[in-house]
């Protein structure tokens, strides 16, 4: 299938966010793709609050089925969440379960004033009442396919679609 | 060859009974996962919902405060329900067998057993008995193993020294009776520490300990020279009564860690101790409270390491 250029979608996202994000916004990226995007947005939008990273693996609702197989990255929120306006960033929005986990984790740091969601791609298929306020592009991807964001050593972002779940770095 | 009884048919960790024979990747996975839990324990809400709805039974057939408490905190931070059983005051004193006790707890839908027992192999027996219906963590069995202690010691060493492959680590004292020493030796050799030393009087070192890949020293001044890490073991009071040791004073003179002795190790060497410490027997107070001691960090890291072990087991 034809996939849009991820760098163009990123620019589209920056344009949408420019008037909405202030230097005080707390940007939080969801690993791995969302964290790459958050890093770029943080720079492009001149945000002063230090960048946050979330790995919501400890909050997943499929833990009892899937376990903790891939390498969990430490979540790091280097600012006060209490009362903060937060922009949550992920690469692909699909079922909404990851975002649900990420929001639960954020609330364990404090009570944010508000949370907005920015995603590079909204592929539909929601299983929870979750919506993104900022979307690079909406894309129809068949249910069995996996859409992932990749980052080249140069830092360039690209989208790929595959049949199977990408082999996660299994340690056990 | 039968498979490692700790692993399930997919090669994933089902029980944690001993570090011996575990592949390096599993140890690294536990240490890395523990690093993620350190951040959790520094937050406003120090809990994650991973083990929500699971029941963890602490089965302590032998006294312990630190280990039992840190296992309890770890399970609670994972949102599990924790049931502490002090077996010394329970049905076992009325004659119930170990496996009958376990069967009864299984009937109460236990998901995980944390077991400490004075007899080596007791957690292994329980693990065989419960099979894949539950997970068993060895919290110390006889002289055999104390795997989570070996892991938290490894975590502490990695935290302060970063790279295992350039280190000299000396384990000092009563290695013979120490499950802590055995687990740590297996962990360090698996993780690639090139120079692991055991230091102690002949009477307190197991015969053939060299076969575990360690160097043996009977002179502490030589044994800890230029070490990056010194692990002091507890001298168990009950050993003093036998023929193995002359007296506490005598032991301290030969194998106690004084500031003068510590100066023989590298200037940035760290001092570890699994606790509880006998000040003035194996370690001088000036060292125990000194800037090189990381003994209390071990306790803090122990919670994160136990959270990592529990969450990895529960997910397998």
Task: State the gist of this model.
Helix content of chain A is 23%, strand content 25%.
Question: How is this structure best described in words?
Answer:
- The complex is a heterodimer of chains A (172) and B (316).
- Helices cover 23% and strands 25% of the residues of chain A.
- Chain A has helices spanning 6-18, 33-44, 63-66, 97-107, and strands spanning 26-30, 52-54, 85-93, 114-122, 134-138, 146-151, 157-162.
- Chain A has one domain (6-59, 79-162): Rossmann fold (3-Layer(aba) Sandwich).
- Chain A is built from 4 helices and 7 strands, in the order H-E-H-E-H-E-H-E-E-E-E.
- In chain A, strand 6 and strand 7 form a beta hairpin.
- Chain A is of the alpha/beta class and 172 residues long.
- With 316 residues, chain B is an alpha/beta fold.
- Chain B has 2 domains: 24-146 and 302-315, Aspartate/ornithine carbamoyltransferase (Rossmann fold), CATH 3.40.50.1370; 147-298, Rossmann fold (3-Layer(aba) Sandwich), CATH 3.40.50.1370.
- Helix content of chain B is 38%, strand content 14%.
- Chain B contains 12 helices and 9 strands.
- A 5-stranded parallel sheet of chain B has the order 7-6-5-8-9. In chain B, strands 2-1-3-4 form a 4-stranded parallel sheet, sandwiched between helices.
- The longest helix of chain B has 21 residues, at 295-315.
- The radius of gyration of chain B is 19 Å and the shape is globular.
- At the A-B interface, helix 3 and helix 4 of A face helix 1 and helix 12 of B.
